[in-house]
Model the fold of this input.
Amino acid sequence: MSALSRLTVTETKLFFREPMVVFFALAFPPVLLVVLGAIPAMRRPDEDLGGVRLIDLYVPIVIALGLALFALNGLSQLFATYREKDVLRRMRTTPVNPRVLLGAQLLMSTIMSVATMLVVLAIGRLAFDVSLPRQPPAYLVGYLLAALSMFAIGLLVGSLAPTGRSANAIGSLLFFPIMFFTGLWTPRDTMNGVLRTISDLTPLGAGVQTLHDATAGHWPQLPHMAVMLGWTIVASGLAARYFQWE
Amino acid sequence: MAIIEVDGLAKRYGEHTVVDGVSFAVEPGEIFGILGPNGAGKTTTVECVEGLRTPDAGAIRVCGIDPQHGTGELRQLLGVQLQESELPEKLKVGEAMELYSSFYREPADWRELVDVLRLGDKVNTQFRRLSGGQKQRLSIALALVGDPRVAVLDELTTGLDPQARRDAWDLIERIRDRGVTILLVTHFMEEAERLCDRLAVIDSGRLVALASPAGLVAMVDDRQRIRFRPTAPLDHAVLTVLPEVTSVARAGRQLVVTGTGNLLLAVTTALARNQVVAADLRVEQTSLDDAFVALTGRSIED
Done:
């Protein structure tokens, strides 16, 4: 087996040995959706939102939340801890390339988070009659862009933070503003102009809008794609620039 | 043809010179020791050999490769056991071996390796559940899984109990018997004396001496010391006239005679002639410890 696939398999096994990480990354988003959907007000059409139900708005937000948790609490901490404990230093003495190491992490994270996304979509459809994306390819493209930008930010935090603990602290600090601008507390449709513009410029604000558009049957808007691509390029570039083995 | 060549190596951190003009060459199949007190620059020296640090001056070749430029190729030929590095806590022994095998072009059979290292029954045990000795043995196994031509082992037996340490020594000899050249960093005299064919003594970043353990002792001192309690009063002149004796001193009820050559025979013969018996007789020879003190002006424990 190649180093990339062996690393991906090994990291996946290790991932499933951490129950708390698994819970927050994989199980928490579906659970949150079920809890939200259990509230009757969430399932009533809202006149202020043009007759849309809140639960319809929350499916992409819950998916974004899953990404943010995975990237900011899982990935960043894992990487910083590996460095702290000299796991990376030991790997550095072998022929394995750091790109393969980063690639395996990204591959595992993407596979896991796509699985969570599918579960959330399925629950939304089956339990709360939320319609599935009318443009599945557009949905997948938007999702992958959002995922890449968040994972790149997670890896950047992991590259900068000296310890697993500090990575966790930085990740939590970033988590709240990023989630605020997805509309977790105030849906994007009810934000004023300034907040809405800021939201459009954040990776998951743009991400959530892209998922909405694809659900409604539209291809993502170019500015939103550019925002996510920009975050991916800048964050991964900085992560590679500041990546240290020890 | 040397398998590791280090020529005029220097490394500074800011104003502080850690390694200052160290040169040595390691022959294939050798166990070559780097001996010195903590902070002497041993680890920095081998990290330059491993290509983990960039030297400020000097040339290094490992299997003919410059570690700074042929890093990729070097990693295939060099197995490294680092001082104090860990694996993910919940990684199992077998998984670690499989993972590290996948990094190399032509890995060794890792199942055979774990058996040799007596970890065969630990294949399904997570790293965090291993004892200190088992972690060390796994660390050696990972250093060897790429079937390297050279293995660098840094402070291999630090933190091990005496039995585990002796086991590790046996193991290193067996690895050498497989044809692997070993560069061993240590601050244990006993380890250096027992294992190493040749030793580079490093102190404050400088190479102080380079010889076999016995050669180092001989370099410092070929004097011997005899201690005994004479059973009858004895005139020191009886001994001082002997050509082998250089000095005679009284220490309580004991006499301490130092000298060279066949000192013991000369002294006992002289005593017998004067009908004096040497009770509690002890012959003391210069140890590697003594040689180290003489070479560096301090004990390795300082």
